[in-house]
Amino acid sequence: MSRIELANASGCFGLFPACDFRLATGAQDDLPTIASALWYFRGETIAVAMRPNKVASFARGVRTFDDVREWATAQSPVAPPDYPPLIWVAAPEILRDARITGDGQALLTAGSTVPFRVVPKIVRNRSFYDSTSVGFFRQRPVTVRGTTTADGLVVRSMWPDDFRLGPRAPSTRALRAGAAPALVLRELMREEPRGGARAPFTAWTLWQRPGAPSDWNGRAVLAFIVNGGQGDDDEAHAGHFALVSGRIASDGAIGDWLVNNFYSLDVESEKGIIAAPVPLDNYLGDVNSGQNWYRPSYMLVAVLRDARAAALVQSALGRVYNQFYRHQLRYYHPTGNCTSFSIDTLRALGWRVPARGATSSSLAWLGLPYFAIKHASLHQATTLFDYLTADQTRLLPAVAGEEIFAHLLTMFESRPQASATGGTLARMLANDIDAVAFLRLPQFPSSRAVGDAPAITLREVQSRQPKDSRDAQIIPLPLRPFPDKLRDADLLPRRPRASDLALAAWGALVLIGLPVLLRRWWQRRIRSRPN
Fold first, then answer.
1. What is the pLDDT of residues 401-415, one digit of tens each?
2. Helices in 338-491 by DSSP H: which ranges?
């Protein structure tokens, strides 16, 4: 029988039983989580592990991914996963397998009718849940997260329960013969209009190891989620990226999977997003911040015969979050973003996800003075430089997905070689992946503009923006300064960026090179004059 219960009363948070956690807010001071992390969640519902000695830690006085690399070297291949420093569950209660009534005012369960309303829209959020949302969710069973009040349930997130994977392998989608794997994934994301934003939910098996079982009930997964481009935000055409871990439920449900979402901590999101591990149903379905309220999403799902690879990645991400919350790891969109943090974690664990390289280093170097003059800003010029010189695998979510898929298929084709030459994570994946599935999740209807597939290149990002920058849809975000009292003494200064070197080189040319050239030109002119 469906009933409202505490968020930790049943089910899982990714690989972890939900009952291993207790619910709290960041305002509490008796939690096994660093103070800098709790500061961001003072008014938010979080789940924290009840075994403090098994919560992910971090090393002081080292760079984040050096910390991950050294920690992974000392890990036992069968070590149980470390618990995350916190999980942002957003609401203290959950109701599964409910139905929305015809008037959209109540939830029907097996034994009762529960009046509900959704949480208020955040003021800066441009669009919200409306009658089209009611029509979409009324057609299917839903899981909601919320808070019980005197007049009913205040719903924070809504998730369609028919968005499932399994419990048996879905039908196989044959890969186009002769096509590069990266192009195959790109075609899957783009084969429907607007990237499938208005298409049905779809699940396919793209690859399965010969002889591997088709019963996926309880199987551990390591998944890679690419969110599409937004239709009403000219800073979000490239999409978003995250790593996911969990297990396929007995009924194929995926809402309990844990998504590791990175987002800038130093601004206040117009949708209320805070960087954290978060349940998939909330990551995609929170009525203010859920990704699928404003764009389609896609998932590559590696179905594992052993949970060790997913456990290794999830444990490592706990360390990354600790370093991120305390500001040893800093968010900088060209080179320190949701995609780069995820790819850097995989690489630090021994999976050498291929680099696609810079968009154009020559354009960046030659264009730096032009950018500075055009925008009347050195800051904008150096930011553009860093975009152009960044590894596209670390910058663009769709490129990261393509390179991951292509490299996975390479692993399968040369499994003995991958096992012998790859690092720890690569060896685990080469041995343990039984199948790879692809999920396409449509955008939930609301008053928001329809999104699209994620842009593949910076040129495509630019092509989707209005020609006149004054027409760009951009939401200014207030800053959220990190308190000095929480800044640890061991934090290392940031490493120089590529733009720092370029700026120094151009500065030297202007201050030293040009005067030297002018002097030589003047001397030649003097010598060339007739006596």
1. 999 999 999 888 766
2. 338-348, 361-375, 378-389, 392-395, 397-413, 415-421, 424-432, 458-463
